[in-house]
Amino acid sequence: MSDTGRHGRDRRSFVPSPRGTAGRAAPELRPEVRTLDPVELVWLGEARELLRGPGVDLTDIAWLGGHVDQLMTAWHHTMPSLRWDPLPTTTAVGLAVGDAVIARVPGLEWVYALDAPVSPYALAHPRTAMVVLPADAVAQLWRNGTPGRLPGLVDELAARSTEHTVEEHPRLSGAMRLLVRRR
Questions:
Q1: Which of 142, 138, 37 is nearest to 96 (CA)?
Q2: What's the whole-number average pLDDT of the chain?
Q3: What DSSP string runs through 57-122?
Q4: How far apart are the C-alpha atoms of 115 and 127, rounded to whole Å?
Q5: What φ, ψ does residue 91 adopt, rounded to 5°?
Q6: Whole-angstrom Cα distance, residue 58 to residue 55?
Q7: pLDDT in the model for residue 165
Q8: How far apart are CA 42 and CA 156, in angstroms?
Q9: pTM of the predicted protein model
Q10: How many other C-beta atoms lie within 10 A of the C-beta of residue 28?
Q11: What secondary structure letter does DSSP report for 131?
Q12: Angle, helices 87-104/38-48, rounded to nearest 10 degrees
């Protein structure tokens, strides 16, 4: 059985939304995303557990930034042949960063980005065309090896997640919204 359903295709793409598209990001502007399924939500929770410990508050970005700086510095000072795979760490930190961004931007939620370059777990808002990839941003930060950048990254991702807001026309009918969009 495939992961897209009993008949091997994703039926969600064929079901129109009963609410129309007013107030949502235009589909041609946003990369293709879908909501997370229950298994992916559990996986995200388990990935966050890599960072948890006694007295650890994953919402404390200052602590998280210091922790990442220690790990990143140790990784960069280790001989390349002895380095560990940073992907589990950057993914867990990226999820914590994404959670911090969600806490700052109302309406933002985790989605699955179908064409993401590294990690498919992304943040999207229904009223913007922007999709933010926090795990990829943390991985890039790790590769650069510059300490002290994680708190600024949270601010940057929060600002970027609200770019390209789609205007809402609440008094226009569905046909009029289509005409406005075609202009």
A1: 138
A2: 78
A3: -TT-HHHHHHHHHHHHHHHHTS-GGGPPP-HHHHHHHHHHHHHHHHHHSTT-EEEEETT-SS--EE
A4: 20
A5: -65, -45
A6: 10
A7: 59
A8: 27
A9: 0.72
A10: 7
A11: E
A12: 110
Q: How confident is the model over 149-170, as a mean pLDDT?
A: 78
Q: For 70-94, how does the pLDDT look when each residue is reduced to its tens digit (9 = 90+)?
A: 999 999 999 999 999 999 999 999 9
Structural domains in the chain, CATH included, are: 29-166 (1.20.120)
User: 153 with 138: CB under 8 angstroms?
Assistant: yes
Token output for 8: 């091997």
Question: How far is 109 from 44, CA to CA, in rounded Å?
Answer: 13
Residue 115 has pLDDT above 90, yes or no: no
| 135-140 contacts, C-beta under 8 A, 24 or more apart | 135/90, 135/91, 135/93, 135/94, 135/95, 135/97, 135/98, 136/94, 137/94, 137/97, 138/68, 138/90, 138/91, 138/93, 138/94, 138/97, 139/86, 139/87, 139/90, 139/94
